[in-house]
Amino acid sequence: MIKRKYIRNIGVFGVAAAALCLIYGFFIEPKTLAVRHVTVKSTEWPGAPLKIALIADIHIGGEHVSAARAERLTAKINAESPDIILLAGDYVNGHLTRHERSDEFNTAVEQGIGYLGALEAPLGTYAVMGNHDAWYDNEALSQWIESANISILENQNRDIMHKGRTFCLVGLSDYDTGRDDRAAVTRCAEGQSRLVFMHSPDSLKLLPSGIALALAGHTHGGQINIPFIGRRVTATKIGHKYAYGLKQYGNFPVFITAGVGTSMLPARFRAPPEIVILTLVSE
After folding, report:
1. What is the pTM for the complete model shown?
2. How far apart are CA 239 and CA 222, in angstroms?
3. Who is most buried in 49, 181, 212, 257, counting CB within 10 A?
């Protein structure tokens, strides 16, 4: 009798714990926002420290990301006073095209991107496009982003002067919906430090050695991070090893952010939305 009661109590506790986890994952964690500070040492970065704000996968129009939330994200990033801001794609939520969406949805996306125009950094704000952006309408989104004074780098590079040294910033096209092209990296001048950002970490396969730092999003940090199982669902070919955080790929450091919004399942569990502030320093 005692054993039966003990088993029943364990079952009740298990059901209650599962219910609490579901409530937390669907209604609480997706609305939070962490600001993570990470220092990255690189042998390919001989210059002064560079403070980078990285944000990805905003997914405006999703259940947890309104246009107003994009405005709050902007204020949070500006409060960190970064040297440069990098936006790593997926500004819009869902899989439908712009013409399949309601006027209300499209207006919210345009308004949210307009709020990103208030981002401030002395070296500028730069963007690449993601797979959801391509499914929605890359052309319209690109116009709205550029109207917000944000420069889009799609397989392009830009020479940027920082405290007496010029580094080469490279933005890559989305691995799944764009055009593979590593020439934007190889076109950097000889001897320049190369900072590369992309939407999906699958694009890491395109990079040569000798990168100072590579940055990506897309994985949502697995979105559901189950104890003892981990971040298994990443929607990448490169796999769960590069689901989240500071990693090494070949001979260079990589950071993959968990991003802000959600996709498919409007939930996050132990993979909270985040803004990442990286300080790149010489090793």
Report:
1. 0.95
2. 10
3. 257
